[in-house]
Amino acid sequence: MASPARRILLKISGESLQGERRYGLDTKVLHNIAEQLKTVSESGVQIAIVIGGGNIVRGAEASAAGMDRATADQAGMLATVINALALQDALEKVGVTVRTQSAIVVQAVAEPYIRRRAIRHLEKGRVVIFAAGTGNPYMTTDTAAALRAIEIDAEVLLMAKNKVDGVYDADPSKVPNARKFETIDYMEAINRRLAVMDSTALSLCMENQLPIVVFDLEAPNSIERAAYGEKIGTLISQHDTVLTGDNRP
After folding, report:
1. pLDDT tens digits for 87-104?
2. CA distances from 19 to 25, 32, 89, 157, 163 (A)
3. Residue 245 — pLDDT band, cuts 50, 70, 90?
4. Closest listed residue to residue 51, CA positions, set 91, 97, 17
5. Burial class (CB in 10 A: 0-12, 13-18, 19+), 203
6. How does DSSP classify residue 18?
7. Which of 14, 4, 2 is nearest to 217 (CA)?
8. In angstroms, rounded to a whole number, what is the distance separating the alpha carbons of residues 92 and 100?
9. How many other C-beta atoms lie within 10 A of the C-beta of residue 136?
10. How far is CA 191 from CA 187, 188, 213, 219, in A?
């Protein structure tokens, strides 16, 4: 991305909100995210957010431990509502107008997800947080992020990861000489099974030609840099695949 996008969707993993804690929320992390989002919003970029819940409950892990999968995923959806409310509070404390919409009915704390209402909020300069994933079990928040980005006509999907600064050709924690992709084509990312995001989400982005930027949330001013189109992390799109240090795939 060479210039600021008009409208972005930011996907924030739940784990990134816990900071150095083993569980829950780190208010310093929330404040840092809120300050960056305030700067981006004030520059005229319309911001929507999908937030995960892995710092509280991960449906897949709860299911593996013996909980019914649909019930486990519903618990995970509720965890994303908690995170959405925490981020909403952090944004309001720095003076950002924000609305939270939930894919499951939690009328006392959030609006229901209504596409046209969400777009109207964005057009008025409000930040919109989408909670509870797609509202369906067996669907990840990555899929929710791709779906909501397409529904609201976002120009780019920004994937803020927890201590992962892009997409690599191997697991950098296990392979010392693993190389990062500067850019990678959608289909190659799918074929390589690089675990950037689930295949359903990646396929949705490919079918709708929605570019994805994968970056480390902890990098300095990372949200601002990604939103303004600076070179950060890895770009997944229809461009040629380029590994760091290479001029060709």
Report:
1. 999 999 999 999 999 999
2. 7, 11, 17, 22, 10
3. low
4. 17
5. middle
6. G
7. 14
8. 12
9. 15
10. 6, 5, 18, 28
Res. 1: pLDDT tops 70: no
Q: Is the pTM of this model over 0.85?
A: yes
Which contiguous run of DSSP H or E holds residue 97?
none
Q: At 183, which helix (H) or strand (E)?
A: strand 180-185
Q: Kindly report the three-state secondary structure assignment for every residue of 107-163.
A: CCCCEECCHHHHHHHHHCCCEEEEECCCCCCCCCHHHHHHHHHHHCCCCEEEEEECC
Sign, Cα dihedral of 159, 164, 167, 171: negative
Q: Using alpha carbons, list the distances in angstroms from residue 169 to 119, 161, 199, 206, 242.
A: 37, 17, 17, 20, 11
HSE (CB half, 13 Å, CA atoms) of 7?
21
The DSSP bridge partners found for residue 225 are none
> What angle in degrees, to the nearest 10, is found between the helix axes of 69-93 and 27-42?
60
Q: What is the mean pLDDT of the chain?
A: 92
Question: In one letter, which amino acid is 64?
Answer: A
Q: At what angle do helices 141-151 and 199-207 cross, to 10 degrees?
A: 20
Class of domain 7-243: alpha beta
Helix (H, G, I), strand (E, B) or coil at 224: helix
CA atoms within 13 Å, Cβ hemisphere of 77: 22
Q: Which residue has the higher pLDDT, 249 or 172?
A: 172
